[in-house]
Target: ABC transporter ATP-binding protein
Amino acid sequence: MNSSIIENSTPEQSFLNISKIDMVFPTPTGGFTALKDVDLQIEKGEFISLIGHSGCGKSTVLNIVAGLYQATKGGILLQNKEVNEPGPERAVVFQNHSLLPWLTSYQNVELAVKQVFNKTMSKGEMKEWIEYNLKLVHMDHAMHKRPDEISGGMKQRVGIARALAMQPEVLLMDEPFGALDALTRAHMQDSLMEIQNELNNTVIMITHDVDEAVLLSDRIVMMTNGPEATIGEILDVKLERPRSRLSLAKDVEYNRLRSEVLTFLYEKQRKVENIKSTITAPASTPKKRANA
Ligand SMILES: Nc1ncnc2c1ncn2[C@@H]1O[C@H](COP(=O)(O)OP(=O)(O)OP(=O)(O)O)[C@@H](O)[C@H]1O
Model:
């Protein structure tokens, strides 16, 4: 962390301050500047989506906020305190659930709850709290099942319950629904909106899905292509809540926002990739079967 971050901070600082971050990764051929001057202030209770082409640096931003990476320049302030390492006040939900396979859903959540509340909650309170969080994600009916006994969507729900049960200041989600089929994904988005309505968490979510970003977010942060990726544009999403995907489908403002994100991604930040040149047939191709 650059010490000037702390010196320059004032009591009016935003809740979460991502301050002028650079990230240079060492590589065998020299430093690779993945991020350059990423600067973003987030208010308590805001839902932020990070969107951008593959490899632009979204996960790197999230990992720096999580305290898993240290920025080369600049840094993170959460409620005016610098972030240098992972902590339970910044819970992360990954694309793949990362549950411990030998523990039930209940026990997976319990592990996180014990880590945070061992000294402040009685056994009974912990049980109540674990059950409450599993109920919040509609998993109370399967809380005693192990990960191999439940579906992908259900595992992801447990992962979210585990993160929420830590009562984090910030929920960091790295493509949380990326591995799910479209219908399950829609259910999960609806659940997340319900939970958000109830708890008003501060969330940073990475997504590749434009509809998901518009549906869930208060602001969509669009990143330029790397190297030296940075924030290209920020879109305010002022659609009324609670939001319903069905009524939004025909909403003029929803469709305007959607088209702004698409324009950013596919016109302003279009990735020029010559697919033909990357897919070349091997020198000897298998011969067709005689009777084919
Ligand atoms: N540990 C590392 N060492 C070297 N380069 C890295 C490292 N981690 C990430 N990078 C590079 O930094 C850039 C940003 O990677 P990052 O994973 O943050 O992108 P992303 O936007 O999250 O991608 P995706 O959408 O595909 O998950 C990429 O070019 C990646 O190759």
About this structure: The longest strand covers residues 30-42. The CA atoms of residues 56 and 226 lie 5 Å apart. Residues 25, 27, 32, 34, 52, 54-60, 226 surround adenosine-5'-triphosphate (CB under 6 Å).
